[in-house]
Amino acid sequence: MTTISLVTGGSRGLGRNTAISIARHGGDVVLTYRSGKVDALAVVAEIEALGRKAVALQLDTGDVASLSTFVATLQNTLRVTWGRDTLDHLVNNAGHGEMADFASTTEEQFDTLFAVHVKGVFFLTQALLPVLTDGGRIVNFSSGLTRVSFPGFSAYSAAKGAIEVLTVYMAKELGARGITANTVAPGAIETDFLGGAVRDIPDYNTAFANMTALGRVGLPDDIGPMVASLLGPDNRWVNGQRIEVSGGQTI
């Protein structure tokens, strides 16, 4: 039976690449977007061109009050499109970055980061438990910045550190249903994260490339296929792990 994966923040960057990679591995995809509907529909079209099914739904993962409505919409979409009301995989990717020194980080920046990256992941996953099939998979995105420090990312990295701990608890508490939960932690990647800083600012790109054993920064194509493979049957025994995908950054 074809698998169905929900990828949050699937309209751009690593979420987009993950959604397309899942389709290339033979899976169907529900992807979410917060405001980039046009970009999301373009991803749907690209997946459909691969011969797979895809649907884009609007979701603000930081708005916990909207989650019950989203789940109802999702289940209706699953019934209409696939004739079922369950998912096989959940990929919690949606998020954003804030770069500010510890001394200058505002409460608003802190609260927004934790609302999306921690609270949103916690309660979205909780709300989706009745929809996620037994034997399913959860992948939560973290960051290489939980292992090494880089000035300006204290709040962001603290949020991602919380996700890594939360993932272990998901793996433990959902194991009775055969559900695995793992964290994927990318290193520096050329995306539009932080306005495309790593991609578009040569000094940033060079600095991170010089920190990496393989001598370059990462590309979305370095991440999405790895996530898709983690969702496959060959990785059914991987559980509760933090998997860094960074080309050997700062080792």
Automatic annotation (TrEMBL):
One protein family per Pfam: adh_short_C2
Alphabetical list of InterPro entries matching this protein: KR_dom (IPR057326), NAD(P)-bd_dom_sf (IPR036291), SDR_fam (IPR002347)
The UniProt record lists the keyword Oxidoreductase: yes
Domain Ketoreductase: 3-187
Keywords on record: Oxidoreductase
NADP as UniProt keyword: no
Coiled-coil regions listed: none
Family, similarity comment: Belongs to the short-chain dehydrogenases/reductases (SDR) family.
Protein name: SDR family oxidoreductase
Organism: Mesorhizobium liriopis
